[in-house]
Amino acid sequence: xxxxxxxxxxxxxxxxxxxxxxxxxxxxxxxxxxxxxxxxxxxxxxxxxxxxxxxxxxxxxxxxxxxxxxxxxxxxxxxxxxxxxxxxxxxxxxxxxxxxxxxxxxxxxxxxxxxxxxxxxxxxxxxxxxxxxxxxxxxxxxxxxxxxxxxxxxxxxxxxxxxxxxxxxxxxxxxxxxxxxxxxxxxxxxxxxxxxxxxxxxxxxxxxxxxxxxxxxxxxxxxxxxxxxxxxxxxxxxxxxxxxxxxxxxxxxxxxxxxxxxxxxxxxxxxxxxxxxxxxxxxxxxxxxxxxxxxxxxxxxxxxxxxxxxxxxxxxxxx
Length: 319
Prior knowledge:
This protein has 319 residues and is mainly α.
């Protein structure tokens, strides 16, 4: 019974270590999320699919509703010109890199922003090409000025995303949101580090205890820890392979199910979010079970050693 319980402890500790080890190595890797967005062509599809069907079009278009001959469809086309997919990719990947560096502990201050100076200047430069009268041009100019005032851009034309999010998340002030994010970063990094450390300790301590349980029988003290590690490593590898193959698709299906009028989410936007999530999870889970093969090899080596010791002792026992 003690050996059985220790075997379960080693197996559970190994599964926990695989999860913590995977998250510690990949959760803060911005390349995974950037690759997922590129793989699903998210920047181009934001204009061609998601934006025209989403409530964002109505939200922004309502501020230009009084502009003669310039409706929401024209707004989408204009945005795709002044802020093309390449611009969206540059801004997104820049924020991903800064966020990843912050959560890895390489920087002490999180900076998330969007550079709007060039797009707004281009809108002003192209404004005469859209309306055909001075009233419309003046209205567009006043609308852009109102946007700049509402967004509170800095001297470099950057929109502070944290300051923008502070009001919509209930924190009220940017400083409060930064404090909450810093606390979350500390808890997350500490939890991953301690979880990885303690789960590995459980695996090692459980294996050693299992070997001591059979002393002074050297063959038993090698055989049963070896068998435990071999079975634990093999099953953990299979579970990791199953997680890689199924979990991203299941998560994407759940996100897709959130679309609908009652939830104010368009099918195209939900489909794009689901596909990006599926690619990101696939990158996060890639190779999660591979370290378990090393554990299985160690178990096989202990079993081989137990077999060798038994064979070595057999002639002596016959004499």
